[in-house]
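Title: Prediction job returns without error message
Component: structure pipeline
Severity: low
Priority: P3
Assignee: unassigned

Description:
Job completed but the reporter wants confirmation the result is attached to the right record. Sequence as submitted:
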Amino acid sequence: MANIRFIFLLTVIVIIAGCAPRGNDSQTGDDKAAPGSLNLSGKISISGAYALSPLAQAIAKGYQEKNPEVEFEFATTGTGAGLEQISNGHIHLAMVSRMLTDEERAAGFYSIPIAKDAVVLIVNRENPLLPVIMEKGIDPKSLSLLYAGDNELTWGDLVGAGSSDKITIFTRGDVSGAAALWAGFLFTTQENLKGIHVSGDLEMI
């Protein structure tokens, strides 16, 4: 299930405008900017989606190579927290791993797509039924019952095998773009997803 990850609200033009020039246009000699440099300085704060952070940091590193006096401050807090922080004016850019809602667009949020994203189901590699799962897959209807229905399915129910072992479900408890996309795939909302709540990618893993 593919979607697009976004950085919101500020275009490159706004980022440039937010960084103070280091001097006037008459700089020469050692003070002259390197080729491709905009001769800028300042700090840009970025927060939001866990999965987007490594890519955003790589982009920031490339930008700093041409503008070494521009500093970036990163925090991985999740999509929801990133949107809240940028709404309150606490950061310059929010990393968000889902589409903007109509309400967010109406509120003035602007999205800049920088990558494609995939949300996948993770199964413990020591699960004895993993070979069966890899061969047969899991029916989406069964997944919907497992994550959002009233049925407590066993592994045998889920993959058509003889196991009566209970399934332990983990799901994102923080306001997460990935969880919102997963819930949409199951025709429900994140609030209705069952399971043990965790925060962020590392805790999920």
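Comment from assignee: result matches the submitted record. The CA atoms of residues 37 and 67 lie 6 Å apart.
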